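Lecture notes, part 5. Sequence design as translation. It can be helpful to think of inverse folding as translation between two languages: the language of shapes and the language of residues. The source text, in structure tokens, appears below.
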């Protein structure tokens, strides 16, 4: 079994064990993680993240059958797991991060996510760009180092 197949199988098995309590736990985790986000963005972020979590779990429970987007140049899976452990991420957050990053090849902020200054996550020519990726390098709670998005070019 290839590593990517093993990852998908592990994520499917994790998703099969998740229930309503896990969704409540992740909501609390997200609200706590976003407590310093400007108020006008906080609800947008929490709702977007919750949507990603639910979509990821439902995809995996339905038996995602796409082609994994694993890329050797990305953050190593071992390092990603270590980072998730460092921030005490609930299992469901880890599942979502790993699924979106290593299986679907999607950024952790969906395209269209707004940021102060009128900037947002964008996808151009198949590449995702984030306006704040580099600015979050000193934030121990941020998972930007795992995210596939690149820093947006300066305007």
């Amino acid at each position: 079994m290839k590593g990517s197949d093993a990852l998908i199988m592990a994520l499917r098995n994790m998703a099969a064990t998740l229930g309503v309590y896990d969704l409540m736990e992740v909501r609390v985790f997200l609200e706590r993680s976003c407590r310093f986000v400007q108020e006008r963005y906080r609800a947008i972020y929490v709702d977007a993240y919750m949507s990603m979590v639910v979509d990821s779990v439902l995809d995996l429970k339905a038996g995602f059958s796409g082609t994994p987007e694993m890329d050797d140049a990305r953050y190593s899976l071992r390092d990603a797991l270590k980072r998730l452990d460092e921030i005490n991420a609930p299992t469901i957050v880890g599942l979502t991060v790993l699924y979106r990053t290593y299986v679907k090849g999607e950024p952790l902020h969906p395209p269209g996510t707004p940021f102060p200054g009128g900037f947002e996550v964008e996808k151009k020519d198949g590449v995702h760009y984030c306006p704040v990726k580099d600015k979050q390098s000193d934030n121990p709670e941020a998972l930007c180092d795992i995210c596939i998005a690149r820093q947006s070019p300066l305007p």
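The translated text above is only one of many valid answers, since several sequences can fold into similar shapes. Residues 29 and 88 are 9 Å apart (CA to CA).
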